[in-house]
Amino acid sequence: MSDLISPWVQRYAPLVPGGAVLDLACGTGRHSRHMASLGHEVVAVDRDPAALAATCGQGITTSAIDLEEEGAAWPFGPQRFAGIVVTNYLHRPLIADMLASLAPNGVLIYETFADGNAQFGKPSNPAFLLQAGELLELAREHGLRVVAFEDGVIDRPKAAMVQRLCAVKPDFPREAALLPPF
């Protein structure tokens, strides 16, 4: 795992309006710390208590939750978060509930492994790999407007096949989705 902030998260994090941010499967908190540095109160969730210990910091509340255990339910209410950040994690059974927790003007920043990643190593289990266009379809199914999408090979922090999405809820103002050029 890298402590470097994902360039995808770094690029789209400024779009998140004021309010709480969920960093789902936060690991050691690289994105939690980044979102807190932008002034957000962050809820950092992971099942690994040791990783959460490394995540602690000002503006960050950690919560040890194993969302994949038998009978796990989504622990957050609807429209709770101005932003949700997910990297290197996929657990399909709770995606609908996760997206329901996004505020009416909220921003989803998602980046994880995609089909074809086996050529680069783990994960290689299809249960943990997005299928072609899967993030786009999830956005469409849940009424999100796609601001940006990529599907392809990255070389840093290690070679991998990924899909990346930044999508917003319907109340997000269109003019706020414009970023400065690269």
TrEMBL record:
| Gene3D superfamilies referenced in this protein's UniProt entry, alphabetically | Vaccinia Virus protein VP39
| InterPro entries to which the protein is assigned, alphabetical | Methyltransf_25, SAM-dependent_MTases_sf
Q: Which molecular function GO terms apply here? A: methyltransferase activity
Provide the Methyltransferase domain boundaries: 21-105
Keyword set, alphabetical order = Methyltransferase, Transferase
**Keyword Cell membrane set for record:** no
The record's Pfam families line, in alphabetical order, gives: Methyltransf_25 (PF13649)
Give the GO terms filed under biological process for this record.
methylation
Q: Determine if Cytoplasm is one of this entry's keywords.
A: no
Give the top-rank taxon of the lineage listed in the UniProt record for this protein: Bacteria
Identify this protein by name: Methyltransferase domain-containing protein
